[in-house]
Amino acid sequence: MTTSTPFRVLALGLTAALAASCATGKGAAGGGSAGVTASSIKVGGVLTVTSPTGYSTGGAELGAKARFARANAEGGVHGRRIDFVGAEDDGMSPDKGAAAARKLVQKEKVFALLPVSAPQFGGAEFLEQQKVPWFGWATGPFWCGKATAFGFNGCLAPKPGQQTQTWWGNQVAAQLGGGKGKTAWIQATDSTASKYGLTTIGRSFTAAGFTLAGTSAALPAQAPPQDWSPYVNKIMKSAGGKAPDVLVSVMAGGKFNSGLYAALKQAGFTGLITDATSYDPKAVADPQARKALDGVYAAPQFEPYESDLPEIAQMKTDLQKVGASLDQHAATGYWSADVFLKMLEKTGKDLTRDSFLKAADAFSYENKGFGRISYPAAKTASNGCGALVRLQNGGFTVAQHLKCFDNTTL
Amino acid sequence: MELLGYVLSGLVTGAIFALLAAGLTLSYSATGVFNFAHGAIGFLVALVFFELTAGAGWPVWLAGPVAAGVLAPLLGYALHRLMFRGLARSGETAQIVATIGLTIALPALGLWTVDVLVETFGADLPKVTEGAAARGLGPRPVHTWHPLSGVTLDSDQVTTFVLAVLAAAALWALLRHTPLGLRMRATVDGRDLACLRGVDADAASAQAWMLSAALAGLAGVLAVPALGLDANAFTVLLFASATAAVFGRLRSIPVSFAAGLALGVVQNLVAGYADFAEKVTGFRTAVPAILLFGGLLVLGRARGRAAGSIAEDAPPPDHLAGLPRWRRALPWGVALAALLAWTCTRGPDDYWAGLVAQGLVLALVFCSFVVVTGLGGMVNLAQATFAALAALAAGLAFSKGLPFPLALLIGVLAAVAAGVLVALPALRLGGRVLALATLALALLADQVLFQIDAFSNGTVGWKLPAFSLGFADTTDARVRIVLLLALIGLVALLVRNLERSASGRAVLAVRSAPAAAQAAGISATRAKITLFALASGIAGLGGVLYATFNGQITATDLPALTGFVWLAVVVLQGVRRIGGAVLGGLVMALFPEVLGYVTDSQYVGMILFGLGGMVLARHPDGVLAQFAGLRHHLQHRRRRARPEPIAPAAEAGEGVLRLEGVVAGYGDATVLRGVDLAVPAGTVVALLGANGAGKSTACAVAAGVLRPAAGRVLLDGADVTALPPHRRARDGLYLAPEGRGVFPALTVEENLTLWLPSAADRAQVYRRLPRLAERRAVAAGALSGGEQQILALAPALVRPPRVLIADEPSLGLAPRVVAQVFELFGELRDRGVALLVVEEKASEVLALADTVAFMSLGRITWSGARAEVDQDTLTSAYLGLADKGADRRSRPLATGGAGGHPPANDRSGDR
């Protein structure tokens, strides 16, 4: 043992010397023009293509591709075409998402990340550190308050005291002919993330005049229960011993929603059911799920495909050209790309990340497809727009067209 | 009424738990492997069922039996052949890791196969995406009943419950009332003894795996309509079922089944009535984890290993021990220098340097496994939780305005505190039970602790910015690499010192022989706590740095399952050395990138990871040890190029059983050093010798329990050296081993049935031994010592074997019983059986023996006819003096028979 001490001292000394000599190298150019040439802008995204639960936002890749294809066909932005390298899959695990972000920035050298649509994206802080802009469908709180994050729909997870959306409650109220005197129950799963939804969505419905019959985050978070009766019994008695008028599910994952709805219907629930994730042709592919979801109002944050607005007709044409299926993720990818292109246009010919982020500082844009967006306001609040789609006999019909409402204080 | 409804529908939920728990218990008790992949098998079978029904359009009545009744057992058999057989006698760590590998690989394999079939071969199969709702075995459309007001039951629930109960009843009947079940239970009760009674333990294990896989498959197909095809949900389901299995002590299938049903009811009652729980986020989710932990604490004490699966984590031979220190360190030194030189050529934002840095952070965390598992021999599945806990605590402290070094320290201390808390149950538990307990704690932390907003800041988590080292900061990947290498070096020194210090030796002592260490006054408590605290401190440090280099930590960044994967990666590389941890970290970070050049599929990496488990089944000490072993073997082969001269076989002689020049031992210790022995038909040979002379080893070699290093065993002139014990037993060799040769958990009747399948034969035993007849339904373990010995020998009376070996039959018996036993021997001799009776005390057996052999220090030192044995020969034989002058007389027995004195009925004959 004693003989090795000098070795150790030597080794530690060497290490320190190496560290010092290594670190004296100067940092790379950074800040600016990575991924931008005179004729192109390189862009790639991070999506949850596969996941243990089967949840997939993979459709967004073709959505973005469709929008870029049209932009390129029209000659690009300020003479630069979009070089879209596709999307990485984060498998719904934060560390894979972080690795994917690093890969796109450091290896692929993209200018911006787009589309990003991953419920547990782990690369947010890295992108913020590296000042790399990223666009997509903002769902989690990691989108909020960041200089580089741009949700086409704003931020869905404001802090107390900030602005939160009222469109969902208002749209449901419109569907029922007013929320006054009606009761709503809000159902989440037993996790912090889901519980958080109880507060914001609850506020949305009370702002629209509903009375809350109750909220619950009792469902086990990791797997749907085999037996729904304890949960359903609570709901059926929540409005003074009767069932509430509206059931709002803030749960993601087909098995949670279709399981709960089927059980509710078995128990005789006749009220309105609404959620944020069922606007998905795959969700109604299975006869059993179709039956459970029949009559449900899904709440997308864009004008539905079934609409006859020219913007939607254009989007459908674009999507069909690249062979995309018409699901809600294709639309989120499409509208994220649309906002990005608009911002590129505003930045002008001299494109660096600095100039781009500067242009984003006072940015406002309206489009009937997804409503409106203005930064920096939408960094901490929802854009306030949403629609209602009714699921019926395995098909979808527009119940309420996309409409924007004023936010309220959380 | 509502309560009744919850209980009823809770039973349905519980039926799935119960079915899974029964399968877990079956495979654990029959093979000693706790199968973490039990849920994954269920998932895979459910996936196949889904593709068969929804994809290929098969009717349910066909697809169900094919998936659960044909495919699942085949899968079980394949896993037995490829993995579990090899794992049965390897260490607990390897077993746990291998099944964890399967948990990840099996679902990935299924999903990947579907992808390949659809994309490459254009098969018209549905892919598993959300909404591709799988149906179960129940009818479609679903019928609903309201048997009571407020109670709703649907046809899926009823189908599930009925099939689960039927399956459990069938399993019970199979185990209780069929020869197959009897053989399986005998194997569980005493694997070696079962082999000696002609049971092929390997085949019994294979059958247990097939049966258990079928149960998992059935549970999977039943659970899938509620769970969907979600591999994680199946793993969660398995954890809940493990709780039920633990309440059945991993032994009793009926208790496990009942506990599973009860668990379903408890979950429903908590969901229905425990409104207070609403305030504690995650409490309801965590009900199974809480019960699991509680159950382990209460029942953990009474743990027992499955007989015959004694899986010691003995350290592998150090093949590099002969090398000088500098030579051992050389490859690592060269690699380190190369890495540093390479680092210097990279830019601060370099992608690859960033990956290496990421790998080294993981390596630092992995070093904690070297301490707790490599040194301490304890399997900790909560390591990712410690890392996350430390990072969250540091993030919290940092956000409160504390300086980073202080926040770092707080993080590490939090992890150490948690380590000590985990160590407290570890004091009482060991092995798999400890692994399960750490699993429960990890799940609890994920589901409850990390859900507390004040601690984890909701889903946003905490920011941890880069810090400066004075001359550079950690946004530079090169700085990270050098810093981490230095830290890992320090940990390596720490581990070395720990191994060599007094406390380190205490730790190793506790690990290799807890009882002995305790007897020597070494405190197991302190040693275990030290190890756990140290390991969690290292994991905590790694966790804080991991978060810092990522810029943030959220509650979901390091989920409990990550800890599983980490452990598996480290063990695959070698968990006993820091080098294994470093290699594991680098593999973890770089492997997906390298794989990205080959395939786009997420699944391929997971499948390869699972294959690692199969490698582990062959090489339980990991890749590094394998390299060292390879080097050793190459050099060894060179040295041994000249074949060793083979000892000339002893001259052929008579005797039903013959040992010729047998050399045998355990590990490095040679016990038998060339034993020649012949037992002729109709003869009693008494093998005498002092304690430790090698008598029992000789019996073991004769019966085939121990494979000799040299020499032959002949049965009726045929060489049976290579035959396993159950084949020798079927050829008529009957060994009554030292102690009592009975299966304590089987009834008297069942004990007899193993050797006497025919009821008429058993009736004959009962006629001879009415005492046994009275107690035929009693568990053999409840009999007195004498009755047990009689029971052990009784079957031989009715169906005499060709050779009967009795190892210390008189040990601990009253003289009256000994007389009865020897009377039995005499009767068998008269019927032509060759008897070898081993005794330490000579007095009684001398009256019976025809021939006597003395054994001392692994050799037969004297042998001859009983008549030639007098007090002097006895004394000198016991004192080891017999060699002198006894050589001439020792020849006759070895070469064929009873020397000058022919045995009573003269069957042996001279040459």
TrEMBL record, chain A:
Residues 40-394 form the Leucine-binding protein domain. Pfam families: Peripla_BP_6. SUPFAM superfamilies: Periplasmic binding protein-like I. Keywords: Signal. InterPro entries: Leu-bd, Peripla_BP_I. It comes from the Bacteria. Residues 1-19 form the signal peptide. Belongs to the leucine-binding protein family. This is Leucine-binding protein domain-containing protein.
UniProtKB/TrEMBL annotation, chain B:
Residues 657-882 form the ABC transporter domain. Residues 886-911 are annotated as: Disordered. One of its GO terms (molecular function) is ATP hydrolysis activity. InterPro entries: AAA+_ATPase, ABC_transp_permease, ABC_transporter-like_ATP-bd, BCAA_Transport_ATP-bd_LivF, LivM-like, P-loop_NTPase. CDD domains: ABC_TM1139_LivF_branched, TM_PBP1_LivH_like, TM_PBP1_LivM_like. One of its GO terms (biological process) is L-amino acid transport. Keywords: Amino-acid transport, ATP-binding, Cell membrane, Membrane, Nucleotide-binding, Transmembrane, Transmembrane helix, Transport. It is a multi-pass membrane protein. SUPFAM superfamilies: P-loop containing nucleoside triphosphate hydrolases. The chain crosses the membrane at residues 6-26, 33-54, 60-84, 96-114, 158-175, 208-227, 233-250, 257-274, 280-299, 351-372, 404-426, 433-452, 477-495, 529-547, 553-572, 579-598. Pfam families: ABC_tran, BPD_transp_2. One of its GO terms (cellular component) is plasma membrane. PROSITE patterns: ABC_TRANSPORTER_2. It is found in: Cell membrane. Belongs to the ABC transporter superfamily. This is Vitamin B12 import ATP-binding protein BtuD. It comes from Actinomadura macrotermitis. The gene is btuD_7.
